[in-house]
Amino acid sequence: MRSMRMLFAVVAVLALAGGLVLGQQGSSSTQALTGQDYEEIKALYARYNQGSDFQDAELFVSAFADDAVMIRPGGAKIEGMAALRAERAERYQGRTGDNGRRHMNASHVITATPTGAKGRAYYVLLDVTTRPPTMTASGYYEDEFVRTRQGWKIKRRVLHSDPATP
């Protein structure tokens, strides 16, 4: 009888400990991304790129969450949708259409996080008004993505530029 009680106590303690571990894991678990998630997130890179290259402010800002933050090389921050729109208006100065540049992205690494996803991708910027096209800049983006009612959006983007060669 005593050994039965001891066995019951050990099983109860193990069950309780297992439940605590599972509860802790469940509270910080990260849901896996689907193939559709990856494609929707990669489409954000395209909207950002083509919005910039074709001077389409609405396409450009459609990649971002309303409270997004973009940090440029050197640390300058653009915070929120109103600031993103104002930055584009200043940059485009009323111009629309093809500006002769092409942003190219490659080597996307996108991973799930507890709050959405994070990503990193290389970029190369080409001037296609020259023959052959001229590379004018390169670097990488570090991104945090969030799922909104409108789908995935960039929550935070940090732009890193590769140093110019001497």
Largest sheet: 6 strands, mixed
Q: Could you list the spans in which at least 5 consecutive residues all have pLDDT below 50?
A: 3-27
Beta-strand percent range: 35-45%
Radius of gyration: 23 Å
Q: In angstroms, what separates the terminal alpha carbons?
A: 84 Å
Q: In total, how many beta strands?
A: 6
Q: Your description of this structure?
A:
The chain is α+β, with helices and mostly antiparallel strands and 166 residues long. The chain is built from 4 helices and 6 strands. A hairpin with a 2-residue loop joins strand 3 (101-113) and strand 4 (116-127). The longest helix is centred in the N-terminal third of the chain and has 26 residues, at 2-27. It is globular, with a radius of gyration of 23 Å. 16% of the residues are buried.
Question: Which features characterize this protein?
Answer:
single chain, 166 residues, alpha+beta, 6-stranded mixed sheet, 4 helices, 37% helix
SSE layout and pairing:
Layout (H helix, E strand, L loop, with lengths): L1 H26 L7 H19 L3 H5 L2 E8 L5 E3 L1 H12 L8 E13 L2 E12 L6 E15 L2 E11 L5
Parallel strand pairs: 1-6
Antiparallel strand pairs: 1-2, 3-4, 4-5, 5-6
In short:
With 166 residues, the protein is α+β, with helices and mostly antiparallel strands.
